[in-house]
Amino acid sequence: MSAGRSEGSKLKVCFVVDDELESIVKNVVNRLGVQFKAKGEKVNLVNIIKRSELKNPKEIENKKVIWIVTGNSFDNKVGNSGNDMYILIIDRALDIDLIKKFLTHDVVGVFRRERLEGEGLEYEELGKFEKLLKDLLRETDENIIVEEDTMYEMIRAKDIENWKFVVKREEIAEKYEDIKYISVFLDPSMREFSKKLKTIIADFKKSYETMTKFVRDKKYRNTPRMESHEKLQDISKKFIEFFSKNRYFKVPSLLLEGETGTGKSLIAEIIAREVLGEHHFKEEYYRQSLVNVEKQLIDSILFGTEKGAFTDSVTKLGRITVSCPGILFLDEITEVPPDVQAKLLTYMDDSVVHPVGYTGAEKIYAPTHIIAATNKDLKKEIQEGSFRADLYYRFKYRLTIPPLRERVEDIRFLINFVLLNPNVNPFDKEEGYKIKKISLNAIKKLEKRKYAGNFREFEDVLRNAVQQALYEGLNIILERHVQ
C-alpha cells in the first residue's frame, strides 16, 4: 500500500450513455460485477447516467467520463474535456465525418448495435464489448479509501488462487512437477499447436504399442533395457519377424524447431510421458544433448561401437539401441556431422543400426521413436549445406514452437501458472502461497517486456519479483518488483 495520495490525484469516473443503449450497458456492467466479485477483485462499478437526465454539465465536472453513444449522437456535440473516452454503437457503416472526429476525440471502441442485442446478437461481438468495459473499469477504478483520516490507494490486483484454476491449492503445490507439462494444452494461443501435438502423441502411442505387443515377453518386461549384445540380438530377431509381417510399417518421428527457451525439451517430455506411461518413461526415454560433444564421437554415441573398432574401443550399445522401442530425444540435431546425418537418414528408413566397427552379416533392428530439436533456422542450414534436406523432410512431423514475444495474450495465463509453482512462489500448508496477488500494473509491465530468453527468462523474472516482494515483507507483486 502507498500513502500520501491527494484526493484530487485521480478523477472520479462515470458512464454517460444514450437512453436507447442503457439496457445493453447495464446488462454488461451487472455481469462484470458478478465476475469481479467471484474473482475477489475489488473493482467499484461506476455510475451510469442516461444522457437525457444529464441536465447540468456540472454533474460531470472534474470527472473522467466514458461516453457510450450512437453514431448520430456522436455526430452532434458531445462533451470533450480532454479526459473523456468514447465508445460508438453504430447502426450503419461508419461515416467519414465520424472518422474525422477520431482526431479530436479519444474513441476506444466501435460496435454494431444489431450484434449486441436482439435477433442479430453475436456473442463474439458482445464478448469484445464486455472485455472493453472490463478493462476500462479496471483502468479507471478510483480505488481510493480513507481510514482514520489516512488515505490509501487500493492496489488493483489478481489473486493467484482465484484466477484460473479451481484445483485445491495444496494439490497444485504437491503435484506441480507432475502436471506442469499440461500447461501447453491449457495455453490459450497454443490450442492449434496442442491439437497437432495430440495427433502426434496418438500416432507415437499406436506405433509403440504395436511394436511392444509383438516383441515383448515376460522376460523382456522385467528387464526392459537392452543392456547387452545378447539381449540386442534376441530382440533384433523379434523385430526382423515383426517387419517381415508389417512391410509398410514406419516408426513415426518428430522434428521440433524453436528458439532457445521455448520449451522443446518440455514438449518431448510431454510426448514421452503420454506414449510410454510413467513406468516405462523412466526406463525407455532418453535425452541426448549433442551440444559440446566432439563430432567424431557422435556416431558411436548414437549407434554404438564394436570392440576393436578403434584403439582401446570396447563393445558399447548406442543411444538409439538402448532407447528401443521407446523414445530418444536428440537435443540440437544440427550438431550431427554430415556423414552421421546420412547414417541417421538410412536408419530412419529401415530401423537398422550399424555400430561403429560392426562387420557382422546379420542386420540389427532397433526401431526407436526419434524426437529431434534445434534452435537454429534449419532452412538456412540446408541452404548453407550444413544440414541435409532429405533428413529434414524425412521426419514425419515437424513442429515450430512460437517464441513468447509472439504470444502476448498468453502472459496472464503463464503468470498464474508460474506463481503456482512452489519452487518459484514458496508454499506453506497452513498459510498457502507466500505471494497471493500480483498487481495489474505489474502484469502490464510483464506483458510489455520482450523475452529474448522466452519462457526461461519469463520464469526467472517472476522468481526475482517474488523474492523482491518477500524481501519487503509483502504478499503482493508490485510493478517495481518486475525488473
UniProtKB/TrEMBL annotation:
Top-rank taxon, per record: Bacteria
SUPFAM superfamilies: P-loop containing nucleoside triphosphate hydrolases
UniProt keyword Ion transport, yes or no: no
Key words, A-Z: ATP-binding, Nucleotide-binding
GO terms for biological process, alphabetical: regulation of DNA-templated transcription
Domain Sigma-54 factor interaction: 253-467
GO MF assignments: ATP binding
Protein name: Sigma-54 interaction domain-containing protein
Species in which this protein is naturally found: Fervidobacterium gondwanense DSM 13020
Pfam families on file: AAA_lid_14, Sigma54_activat
InterPro entries the UniProt entry points to: AAA+_ATPase, AAA_lid_NorR, P-loop_NTPase, Sigma_54_int, Sigma_54_int_dom_ATP-bd_1
Keyword Nucleotide-binding in annotation: yes
